[in-house]
Every structure is written in C-alpha cells, then in structure tokens.
Amino acid sequence: MSNEAAIEMFVAGLVLDPNTQAPVVVLKDEGGTVHIPIWIGIAEATSIASAIKQLPMARPLTHDLMYDIFQQMSVKVERVVVTELKDSTYYAELILSIGDRAVILDSRPSDAIAVALRASAPIFVAEKVIEQAKASFSVVPQEGAASSSQGQSGAASDASDTQDEQQDFKQIDKDKWREILDKLDPDDFKFKM
To answer: Whole-model pTM?
Structure first.
C-alpha cells in the first residue's frame, strides 16, 4: 500500500445480514461516524467472535494457529490495512515485522482482522477505499455526522464469499441497506467490542 493515507478503524461487532443470514463484520472509525460492513464467511466470523469474546477453544482455530506460529517465529503483527475495493470485494494487507524487516502479505480482510484481534494490532482502511465505499456501497455516517442525500448502501464482501453470495449481495437494494445500517446500534450487535 505504499504511503497512501488510511484511517484507523475498530471492530464494532458482528451481525447477521437480515436477508441472507450471512455474517457481517462492522468496522467503525474512532469517532463512530463511519461504519463499514464487510460480508464474511461463517468460519471467519466464528474466529473473529472467539477473539472478540476471548473464548478459549478446545483446539486452536486456523487464526489461532497462525498467530501462534508468528509468536514462535518472533514475527510481530504490525497492522492490517484494507487497501482496495474492486468488483464488490475488499482486499487487505497483513503487515508483519521480522526483526528489522517488514513483510506485507495479501489477505482477505476477514483473515487479517481475525489475526489482528489476536495480536492487538491496529486495523486501518485506506481513505480511497472509504471514498469508493461511500460512492458504491455501504459506508454509513451515523446520526449527527454529515451524510449525502443519496442512498449509499449496498454490500461488499471479502474474497471468501462465493460467486453466488456476491451475486445476491449485488441485488440488494442500496436504500434498504442504508436504512438498516442507519438503525444499527452497537447494543444490537450479537458480538461487540
């Protein structure tokens, strides 16, 4: 991602899409003025939820194993950056450090977020991605924040979704999603930070 501007975001919680019952991880900025929902897979949602709730598992989940490997090999998770939004799919980078060397790995946002939560690493979203999402999908300013009069809702997923799921999301009415996301209250989240 070179030196592009990015905004730190936090996991506000996990919700289920009321139409498809697909899990959605909701990222928000520090002021709570912008929320970005990213549709993810069930396995990734389970992993994120277990990290949020700090639930011990009988056996390590994939993201637990990945984080354990990083720790054993003295690899530090520096941050996650959601870098792109292309064809209704978000892309991310997992940025690691090994000694004085930086390593950047291409990642699905859901996987990167699951690892970042375990490592207490910050999550950033590139400003260009937020602008693209405002124009195309579902970045929703909360009450009291400036908002456009146009419906800016829709659905974007990470690369874990199947073609069928992505096709379903593309057909969802943008105004309906704006209404749903405007009404979201952190107290309504099934799993929240």
So the answer is: 0.73
